[in-house]
Every structure is written in structure tokens, then in C-alpha cells.
Write the C-alpha cells for this entry.
Amino acid sequence: MRGVDVAGAAEVTDATESGDRTAIRVSGVSKSFGSTAVLTDLDLVVGMREKVALIGPSGSGKTTVLRVLAGLERPDGGEVALFGSTVWPRPPKAVYRRVMLDVGMVFQQFNLFPHMTALRNVMEGPMRAKGWSRGAAAEKAREVLDMVGMSGYEKSWPAQLSGGQQQRVAIARTLAMEPRLLLLDEVTSALDPELVGEVLAVIRRLSTDTDLTILMVTHEMTFAARSADRVLMFDSGVVVENGPAQEVLRNPGHERTRRFLSAVLER
Amino acid sequence: MTWDWSYALDSLPNLLRGLLITLQITAGASVIALSVGLVYAALILSPLKIISLPVRFVVDFFRGTPLVVQVFFWFYVLPEIGITAGVFAIGVVGLGLYGAAYCADVYRAGIQNLPGSQWEAAAVLHLPRRFLWADVITPQAFRAVLPALGNYVILMFKYTPILTTITVTELLAEGLDLGSETYRYLEPLTIVGVLFIIVSLPCVYGLRKLEQRLSRATA
Amino acid sequence: MQHIVDNLPYLLDGLFVTLYVTALAWLVMMATAFALGFARYYGNRPARWSSGLVVGLFRGTSTFVMLFWAFYVLPQFGVTLTPIVTGVLVLGITEGCYLAEGVRGSLASVTRGQAEAARVLGLSPWQTMARVVLPQALPTMIAPIGNFTIALLKFTSLLSFISVQDLTSRMQSLRYQVGDSIVLFGVLLVVYYLLSTALGWLFRYLERRASVRGTGRPPEAGHGAAAAPPVTEPTGGEVALR
């Protein structure tokens, strides 16, 4: 059966990884745009099935971390390994592609394909990147659309959906690829306030009900406290605080984190 | 000077024959412009400068010079270098190549103006390159450029009278012929102008509707 | 090539006519475009309707047909204009009708909020236009004005068919005398190409200068080669402002 749930898929492959329990290992990664250093000598280890929230002021480099992990940015130096396989420096194309098929990313602006229906958006990955048959891809697509509460909208065009609905379709599109690592880049920042809840509910369910490793950049502190195991506070390209979510958010150890949190919470 | 209806009616058959030739030229030139333009655009987008720069120059040259001089060039130069072609063929190819230079830019802009996020969305889905182009880029670019391409087809229709100057017997040539026979230009030339409006305005209107529909579907 | 050198003064006269006609037609084009553009954006219903009619008439038909109509038919009504005036008016008004859409679009690109803010500050309608709307709208008009100026230049070659002695016409006469089409028309094409390119540079320069002052759109953020996924700025904020 194609429709293995995400949790099952993770377990099966997990066993083959000869006991390496890290999903992400980043060492000494730097990245600048022109003369602006966005990441400076970053080290980061995330265990299998960990849910980690990245917080910090805008421009602090947290989104860039996700983009490096998704292969959208090339670091200037350092090493990146996912599930025990090096992806930077780049391995041979076939190896890289095999590893990266386990990584999915959801964008702030949804980035749905505007000329495809919701169903077709979700089918595109399994069909084209994994070579599934149309029928199998459609079956998978319906399943994940149901998972994000978007059953019944299969034939809708992105332009006909609200922001929250579009973002849920975008999440489904990523889940259809059965990733083991899910990167969420400020997925609620572009939404009207009343639509934020429905998307957070979906992510909350993913974080409790699946074995996905999740890395999320977010400005929703309460949500981060409840859904994440760990919080990383970024400032000017370095991690200034790293600890269990509740602890960091309730009782920040670093002056910078205190100031950031009080600024965010006082909004 | 007053409008002479019987003369106007008498001249109609000749003018309609000219209109038919004009439409044929437009169709032929459009096929050339749309296809050669696409080839130009693909070459211009090539990462190899040795390919893209010369093609860009050719496109610039065709755009930077008057159609009538280009057509003259083909008309007078081709026989000198031993190529014989009928004026109709020269007209169609000359107009088509002129239009191709403009279409090239439309295609190029259509592809380059797609938001980068679409490329990224395709990248994180790990779409192979051929599907990136077939499923994501081309369909969106095509929708984006359809109205602009349509505009150029209409423009080429309006440029066909320039081929009168190399003796293609299209609509304006028929009108001028009638006028020179009778020394009455009012009726034939006015009808010529009106025929152009009758054909082009509905096309412009239809194109605008199409544009609205496309932008609604993808907004 | 020798023929061109021998007849240089004759051809330069033609070049002068080409440039002179282009300049005159440019003035007509600008006047037409601004009149129609303002009428279409700010005018009342009759003004919008009648300017729409003019635009439809001139844009619906073919420039070349219009030119011959003015040349042959107007005299039959007793309106006798010199060929140059006929050509300048037809080309200027036709291209002005196309450009009017650009003027209207530029005016529309200045948000209503800007004009309302100016009115609330107590500026008169005239001051609002001169000090708030136009300074923001003009930079966005430069590109279309440039395109239509080049179009005008190229269209002036049509005036040789209503007996204006421009560069195309003189080159054609020379060809009748000496033959050698390849060189003569080749040179003619190159001259037009250089003129268009120079105009293109001029207007791009003006556009850059206007947008540096901060009123125009930011320079286009093209995505470079389409082959690679374009790199977007990561966080919007300070990096994008660099």
C-alpha cells in the first residue's frame, strides 16, 4: 500500500540508519549576502523526531538556516549532514537527491502553483519527483488533504481559497512527498489573524501525531512553547540561547532573548 | 466633395480581395513571428554568452530598424544574391521576422517575470528539470504572455499595408489602385481604414476579455 | 561605399529631415498623449468617451493607411497641408494615442491615498498635481515615452512615400541611380539601428536618474538566468535594503 502514514515511513527508514539518531548536523556553517553576514560559524544538532522552534528578530538568520537545509542556499563554508549523509559539501547528484527527497519545506507565502487545482498541486510531487502512477498520487493526495482538513476542496484553484486554506494545501503538498524532515518557514506570518489558528492546529497535530522531525521558524511564541521540544534563539547569525521550549520562553537566560520576548509578547 | 455610395459599393469587391490577402499575410507572418520568437527567447536565456549575446544583438537590430527598410532590404537584396522569391513570400517573411524580434522579448519576460518562489516550490518538491519546465514554468509563462503575443499579431495586421511598397497587392494597395484610376481617393481609402478598424477592434476587445479571464484564474 | 561618401551631403540632408521630423512628431505625440491620458483618467464622462473614441479610431486603423488617407483625401476637402505637416500630425497623433494609455497608467499608479493626503494637508488641486502626483508619475512614464519615441523615429521612414525627402527617401533615390542595394540599404539599416540604440540609452539614463531620486520604481529585480533557481533575499529586512 502506498498510503503509509508519515510516522510508519519514518520508522522503517530509521532502522536502516545504523543507529544514528541525529536528523540534522550542521557544523561551522557561514553564509553572507554581499557584505552582510547572515550566519556565522553555526553549529546545530537536531535529533530524530525532535520538534525545534527557531525564534529571533527578523534578519537574524533563522530563515536562512531552513533555506540552507532545503538546499535553496549554498553555504559559504562549513558542513551539513542530514540523516547521517553529508549534503554540503555537495555529494554526487544521485546521493544528494536521495537524501533530499526526505526533506520537505513549507513557505511563508504558500507558493502553490496557481495554474493547478489543489489536488493537482499535491499530486505533482509524488507523480513527477517519485514517478508514482496518477492513481496512486491522487489517492495519496486525497489522504493528505484530508489530514489537513481540506477534503472537499480538491477541485478548487488556489486563487479561490483563503490564505489559511492555501497554506494547508501547501502543507499537504509537502506531506504527500512523505518527508522525514519538515521545514516550516513562518507559515502563519502571511495570514490574516483569524486564519492563523486553523494552520497552527494542523501543525500541532503533525507534531504530536507523527514521527516527523520538524524545524519551524515562527513568531507565535505560545504555539512554540506548546508544540516544540526545544527552542533556539537566533540573533545576528548566531544561536544565543538553546534549551527546552518551556524553559527558554518562561525563563530566558540571555539578556537578548529577554528583550526579544518582551518585545514580541507586548505586541 | 461628397461621399459617392455607388462608387463605394463598386470598389468593395476589390477591397475585400485585398483584405483577404492582408489576412493571409498576417496569418503567415504570425506563425513565423511566434515560432522564431520562441527560438530567439530560448537562445537568449541560454547561460552561454557566446549563444545569447549574438542572438540578443540580432533581436535588437530587428527592433531598432524600420520595418519598411527591412522589407526593402529583402526585396532588393535577395535577387542580387541570386535568391528569387515572390513579393508575397518576401512580405510574409519580412513581416514575420520583424514581429519575431518583438515576440522574443515577450517570451523572455514571461519566463523571467515568474516569481522566484515558483522555482523554489518546484525545487523543494524535487521536480526533475523536464517537469519543472513542462508543468510549472511553461504553462504559467504561456498564460502570462498570451495577451502580449495577441497584441503583436494585431500590430502585424496593421503593419501589412507597409508591404504595399514592395508591390504586394494587399488591402491598401487595392485602395490606392482604385484611387489612382478615378482620382477619387475618399471612398476607397476610407473603406480601407474602416475595414482595418472592423477587424482589429473586436480582436482588441476579445484579447482584453481573455486577459481578464486569465488574470482572474491565476490571481 | 564610395557612392555613400560621394553623396554624403545629400544623405546628411536626408538624415537631418529624419531627425527634424522625428522631433516635431515627438512634440505632437507628447501633447496628444498628455491631453488624452489626462482626459481618460481625470475627465468627466463626455471627455472620457470622446477621448476613447479618438484613441480607438487612431489605434484601430493602420498608421500607413491613415497617412495615405490624410495625404490623398484631405486635399479633396480643401485641406492642403505640406507632406511634412501631414506626416508629423499623423505619426504624432497615432503614437500619442498609444502613449496615452501609458500616461493614464502612470497617473493611476500614484495611489489615491497620495492625492488624498495632499488634499488633507491643504494643497490645492493644482498643487496636488504639480507637487505630489506628477513627480511620482513622471518617472514611470519615461520608459513608455522612450519606446514610442523609437517607434516614431522608425515610422518617419514611411514619410518617404508621401514625398518627404528623409534619409530613407534619399537612399532610395541613390539606389535608383547607382544600384548596389546591399551596401546602401545595409548602411541605412545600421544608421537607424544606431539612432534607436542612442535613444534607448538616453531614455534608460533618464529613467535611472529619475528613480535614483527615490520617486520612481526601484530598479527591476530581474531573476537573471532562468536556468538556476533564482536566489531571493532571505529575510526581507535589512539585507534587501543594502
User: Anything to note?
Assistant: Chain C has ten helices and no strands.
